[in-house]
Amino acid sequence: MIRLKGEPHELALGISIGIFSAMLPILPFHIALAVTLALFFKASKITAVIGCFASNPFNWYILYLMNYKIGSFVLGLSGDNKGFSSIVGSVLDSEGAMEVITRLISSSGIMIAAFIIGGLIMGAAASVPSYFIFLKVFDSIKTWRNKKKELKNAAIKR
């Protein structure tokens, strides 16, 4: 198992950046965005990549549907899901990334805006609480490691 190195803040920030990136409808570029943001914000790049796995083939349909619905609501669009179904159908049929991107681009610009706005809102809604949750987790792990180290050092001195 890999031992993550870094301060709890850096590790938690990395995870939350990865989760934020995972919520965006940029399927083949989640990891690239997460690592770029982690570099910019001086967060852990490894935990940013781990956070990207919040988006996976088992939940793409639900995530993208929620992105579209939230974005459509914010933009005041009708509930028509025909364009969405076409794009998600491409993803579920395992068509190449370029085919999915082509379908998305050929749809209306307002639909793309709905996906992106919905993804930004979902990303913020998921990443902010995840930062605080993982900060507590990584802080607890650091405390546990320090206590374990102190006990080991005390045993050696005897």
Structural features:
158 residues, mainly alpha, 7 helices, 77% helix, elongated
The number of helical segments is 7
Mean pLDDT: 85
Structural class: mainly alpha
How much is the radius of gyration in Å?
Answer: 20 Å
Strand content: under 5%
Instruction: Write down the secondary-structure element order.
Output: HHHHHHH
Share of residues in helices: over 70%
Report on the biggest sheet: none
Apparent shape: elongated
Q: How many DSSP-defined strands?
A: 0
Poorly predicted runs: none
Q: How many domains comprise the coordinates? A: 1
C-alpha termini separation: 31 Å
Short summary:
The protein is mostly helical and 158 residues long. The protein has one domain. It has 7 helices and no strands.
Walk me through the structure.
The chain is built from 7 helices and no strands. The mean pLDDT is 85. The longest helix is centred in the C-terminal third of the chain and has 49 residues, at 109-157. The chain has one domain (8-157). Helices cover 77% and strands 0% of the residues.
Topology:
Blueprint: H1 8-23, H2 30-41, H3 45-52, H4 60-75, H5 82-92, H6 97-106, H7 109-157
